[in-house]
């Protein structure tokens, strides 16, 4: 399997609660996040959403789709959401939100492995394209989030 590690940071002039509501309610991502084709709830979690299982279908600039499930493993309201990816990607994702001087920072740390044979076979030469593709989709997310809030992004970066 090919391993990938990404960090995305979005900074928006909005309350932490507003940003949290959009990120936490991932079943509504297709409404505002280009590239998220479908989100299906497979299992409810507890009262804080821990244990919830969602299936995501993503489409990007490159001619393929990724489908994987995310199981919510940790929620600290308005500040942290962690989950475990299962399927065509497997690994860990973590949203961390903070607020300072009128700007909310949403940081996403994503450590995953690809499980599709063709992606693993091509990884030695295609890794830069897969990384670029990830950055494009995350850029769409930042733009969509800002548009949904009626503001402009202060910053959007990928590492």
Explain what the structure shows.
Strands 2-3-4-5-6-7-1-8 form an eight-stranded antiparallel β-sheet, covered by helices on one side. It has a single domain (3-158), classed as Alpha-D-Glucose-1,6-Bisphosphate, Chain A, domain 4, CATH 3.30.530.20. It has helices at residues 16-24, 29-32, 117-149; strands at residues 3-12, 36-43, 53-59, 65-76, 80-87, 89-100, 103-114, 155-158. It is globular, with a radius of gyration of 15 Å. The protein is of the alpha+beta class and 159 residues long.
Quick description:
This protein has 159 residues and is of the alpha+beta class.
The separation of the N and C termini measures 21 Å
Number of helices: 3
Radius of gyration: 15 Å
Beta fraction: over 45%
Name the CATH superfamily classification.
START domain
Instruction: Domain count, please report it.
Output: 1
Largest sheet: 8 strands, antiparallel
Give the class-level CATH name: Alpha Beta
Main β-sheet, spatial strand arrangement: 2-3-4-5-6-7-1-8
Q: Based on helices, strands and strand pairing, what is the structural class?
A: alpha+beta
- Poorly predicted regions are none
Question: How many individual β-strands?
Answer: 8
Name the average pLDDT: 95
Kindly identify the CATH topology.
Alpha-D-Glucose-1,6-Bisphosphate, Chain A, domain 4
Chart the SSEs and their pairings.
Elements: E1 3-12, H1 16-24, H2 29-32, E2 36-43, E3 53-59, E4 65-76, E5 80-87, E6 89-100, E7 103-114, H3 117-149, E8 155-158
